[in-house]
Amino acid sequence: MAEGGPQPTPPDNPSGYSHLLDCPICLEQLRQPKCLPCHHSLCQECLTSYIISEVSGTSDTTVSFTCPVCRKLTHPVDKSEDKENWAKHFPTDIAVMKMIQLKNRSSEPHYCMPCQRKGNMMTSAKFWCKTNQSLFCESCKVDFHDIIHINCDVVDITETKSFLLNQSTSDKICNKHKEKMDYYCEDHKSIGCCKCITVGHRKCDAVATTEEYCEKLTSGHWLEEMRKSLQQGEKAMESLVKDFHIQLQSIADGKDTAMKNIDDLQEQIINRIEETKKEITDDLIAKSKEERENLKVSSQKCERLKVAMQNTLASSTTAQQRNDHMDMILLYQRGQAEVESCRDLVREVQTSLSSISIEHEADLHMTRQRPGLNLGKIIVRKQLQHIPADANAFAKPLSKRNVKELKKIYIKCPSDENDCSSRGVVYLPDGRIVVGDDGNHKIKLIDTEGNFVDELKVNGSPYGMCMVDNTTVAVAVNTNHGRICLVTVTTSELTLASEINIDKPCYGIAYRNGEFVVSSEGRVLIVTKDSPRAMTRQIHESSSTVYALSYDLNQWKTLYRSLRK
């Protein structure tokens, strides 16, 4: 059977079928046209690209694809071939190739054959004799052709080019058997020569000549119904195309509107950022100024008293040298008052002296409850600081200080399943506290008003706690194998930063000089901070269990409390 399947008969006017010679994918003239079983032809290269794209992302065992025009399921000629080779195995559309050749030659001039035989090679032909397959000019037609041939089918080629098509397409020859293709099998919907039908379709029920099948189509009004269906389908596709164009325009308009909205929002965000920046900058300047003024006031008090004491000291020395009894007495009294003032001032500073740091805490998390843009806030962190050694002589001993209850804080939160049991607590410089809840195996953050803020679940019992820096708390967690949990504390969140594993139980904990001091039953250990697996060394051993540790910043000593077994 000839390649390309059933070959449609071209219309008389070449310009009327030119669109049939265009590839439906690239929309250009077909190149190496391949005909699918549904009779749609495509460029081999375009069909290959389409098949690869169609089956990409599907199973490697895929053995079909859909026609890009009618969406009919199509199977390759050889399923064992790679998908990249499926297209080239489909039959070449010979009729389309001939039409393309004829279309490309339709503009060429045609010359009278009798005149060429007489040596006049450039006489233009006007008539085509289908019977003799010859071209004639007007005079040769009258003088030679019409005298001998009376019943020939002659056409005026200046009015139509159909004779060119009829030369090549009136008799379609089977490429395999070189016979005229004039049979049609309705079962397989294919055209072939008599040998094709005899060999490949002798068991088929509906086989007829092409002429008989065409008469059947015409008499049964099938062609008319098919034309009406095609017209309806054409209108349906036209409506869909228009709808798609409307949707495409809607998408383009929506994109433009969205881009404008984004630009407007960007401008609003920039303006809001500027406003927020001014607000937070003003807050920073105000808090910085306030803390500086407070420090300046304290510094000026100390400076004035220092100068006064220097003057008194110098004057008393001079008075003693002059043996001026009156001045000596007066200066002695003044010196006593200044010493008492110094003692009071040192005690005042002792209760308030702290290392102050001003930090910016970013907070860019936007939620449904907090949709606004937030550049964070200014935090003034204060950490208790030991007074200089020279001022210790005037400091009030701890044994003589008073203890005052400020308020009670309840650490139980809604998620607790057990009663709370607190063993360790850290008081942060800004007034918040971090407390360990052994009963629920949690670490909790409480704000300055005593409200629960956040919790962090730990695997074990949190015992001792200590501060590492202004934003980090260390927790001794007691399990079969103890560990130190380093917890980062922000305004509203507790986060486990890292863990240091220890092969021994942990109770008390303190931090000094970049190392941890940990109590483990009756032993006090130094634990290296940065090791994934802690390096420990013993520095003290007690006859009883050491449950609590603390570090004295003034005397640079580690203190511990033990409980006898």
Average pLDDT works out at: 81
- Which word captures the global form? elongated
**Largest β-sheet summary:** 4 strands, antiparallel
By DSSP (H or I, 4+ residues per run), the number of helices equals 9
User: Based on helices, strands and strand pairing, what is the structural class?
Assistant: alpha+beta
Q: Radius of gyration over alpha carbons? A: 51 Å
Strand order within the widest beta sheet: 13-14-15-16
Strand content: 15-25%
The rounded distance between the terminal residues' Cα atoms is 105 Å
Q: Low-confidence segments, ≥5 residues, pLDDT <50?
A: 1-16, 162-170
Total number of beta strands: 26
Can you tell me the number of structural domains? 3
Q: Strands, helices and their partners?
A:
Blueprint (H helix, E strand, L loop, with lengths): L32 E3 L5 E3 H12 L9 E2 L6 E2 L19 H12 L7 H5 L9 E3 L4 E3 L1 H11 L5 E3 L5 H8 L13 E3 L4 E3 L1 H7 L6 E3 H10 L2 H101 L2 H28 L1 E8 L15 E8 L37 E6 L5 E5 L4 E5 L5 E6 L3 E9 L2 E7 L4 E7 L4 E8 L7 E4 L2 E6 L2 E6 L7 E6 L3 E8 L4 E7 L2
Antiparallel strand pairs: 1-2, 3-4, 5-6, 5-7, 8-9, 8-10, 11-12, 13-14, 14-15, 15-16, 17-18, 18-19, 19-20, 21-22, 22-23, 23-24, 25-26
